[in-house]
Every structure is written in C-alpha cells, then in structure tokens.
Amino acid sequence: MNPEHLRLLLEGVRDGKINLDDALREMRDLPFRSLGFAHADTHRHLRTGFPEVVFGVGKTPSQIATLLAELGRDGATVMATRITLEVATQVLAAVPGARYLEAARIVVAGPIPEPTRGRGAIAVLSAGTADIPVAEEAAVTAELDGNRVVRVFDVGVAGLHRLLSHRETVEKAEVLVVVAGMDGVLPTVVAALFSRPVIAVPTSVGYGASLSGIAALLTMLNSCATGVAVVNIDNGFGAGRMASLLNRVRA
C-alpha cells in the first residue's frame, strides 16, 4: 500500500466512485499480509516512504518471489538484496517484469522512480573494484528512493591522485557514501577534503588481518576527520537509505 494508492482509494470513496465495503477490503491488508512463512509489511511505505525490502540471504527463491509479488501488488517498486545469479534466475521466472542488477546483487520489481526526491546528487565512492558490489547496493538503493546518483569507483588511497582527479564531481554532491575494505582509510581522507556528510561503509574485503571487515570498521569508527558516520560491514543498503534521507527535499 503505497501513499499514492491510498490517496486514490480515499479520493474514490470521497467522490463516490468506490463504495465503502470495497475500500475496507482494500485496506484489510494493512498493516501486513500473512504469507505463512512471513508477515509482509505492506504498511512500511506509508510509515517511512520506502517499501519493505526483502533480504535474500536464507530465503528460498520461491519465498523471495512471493514476497516481491505481494509487496509490489499495488504497483510499488520493491527490491530484494543479496541475490545470487542462480537464485535470481528462478525469481525472475516467477515475477513478471522483474530484473536482476548483477553488480548490486539486487532484484527489482516495478519502475525506477524519477530522480526528483533529492535536493542534489549522492556520490558513491569505492576504494577498490572489489568493493563495487557493496557500493552498487548503496547506489541502487538511493536510486530506487528517487535520488540522482553518481559513481566514482576505484579511487582508494593507494593511488590518491585517482580521487583528486574526480574532485569537481565529488564537490558537487550533497552526500557522500564511501565504501572501503582493507585498511578502510578512504572515508577519513574524503571527509578531510570535502565539506559533505560522509557515510562510511566498511567491507569484508581484505586479507586475514582485516578480520572480514572488522579492521576497516574500527578504522572508520576511529576516524580523526569530522562528519563521518559508519554503518555495518557490507551494509550498502543501509548506507544508500541513510544517504537518501540526508538528501531529502523537505516541504
């Protein structure tokens, strides 16, 4: 139940085009639909402005497809994260019109909204190419929430001149999402160079002493630069959503 659908429903009742019993049947699914294996939160879009998102890990392709179909039943754009190619193939066969964004490991059902909700662009930076899947998850999430997103990938501190060559692009953005594994230093460098809020995303990329992203997480939490906020390891979705909220145009 997205806000526009609810508005049209209520206007239909007001104008006499929809009778009250039909409207009650439509609204019976609020605040959730019980699917047996899950309670699909159809009310979340009304509360937060962003539909419920299906976390694909641990779910069967059939469960993912059912959730996407139910959550997108009224035309809302919905997504499932952390989807492998093998699982995506089965989901797409069951959900007409859905598509798989392989770099982001996301299945999307419904239209991509126009980038009109943000007051400016969100820049998503990655330290290395190995960080791109998490960076793409952040970028796609922000795009699905109606933001314009620019991508600046493979600009880690091992070659700082690469970041500086994109200085003008980064300076024009309103919010920066910076994704890094290994030593996790890039968010600190970016926050020291640019007067924009930085959402730091540690990734699990790295050798043994990186401790599956804990080293990068601790580096970011201990940043000596101001304006850095940190999300969980590999949480591109959380970073993209937070960036969208920071970039939101308020009435």
Chart the SSEs and their pairings:
Elements (H helix, E strand, L loop, with lengths): L2 H12 L5 H8 L5 E2 L4 E2 L3 H5 L5 E2 L5 H11 L6 E4 L3 H10 L4 E3 L4 E4 L11 E6 L5 H13 L3 E5 L7 H5 L2 H6 L2 E6 L5 H8 L4 E5 L11 H8 L6 E3 L5 H12 L4
Parallel strand pairs: 3-4, 7-8, 7-9, 9-10, 10-11
Antiparallel strand pairs: 1-2, 4-6, 5-6
Helix pairs in contact: 4-5, 6-11
CATH topology of the largest domain: Rossmann fold
Q: How many distinct domains?
A: 2
Can you tell me the CATH architecture of the largest domain? 3-Layer(aba) Sandwich
The biggest beta sheet, please? 5 strands, parallel
Q: Please work out how many helical segments DSSP would assign.
A: 11
End-to-end Cα distance, whole Å, is 22 Å
* Average predicted local confidence, pLDDT: 88
Total beta strand runs: 11
Alpha carbon gyration radius: 20 Å
Strand order across the biggest sheet? Answer: 8-7-9-10-11
CATH class categorisation of the largest domain: Alpha Beta
Determine the structural class based on helices, strands and strand pairing. Answer: alpha/beta
Share in helix: 25-40%
Spans with pLDDT under 50 lasting ≥5 residues? none
Strand fraction equals 15-25%
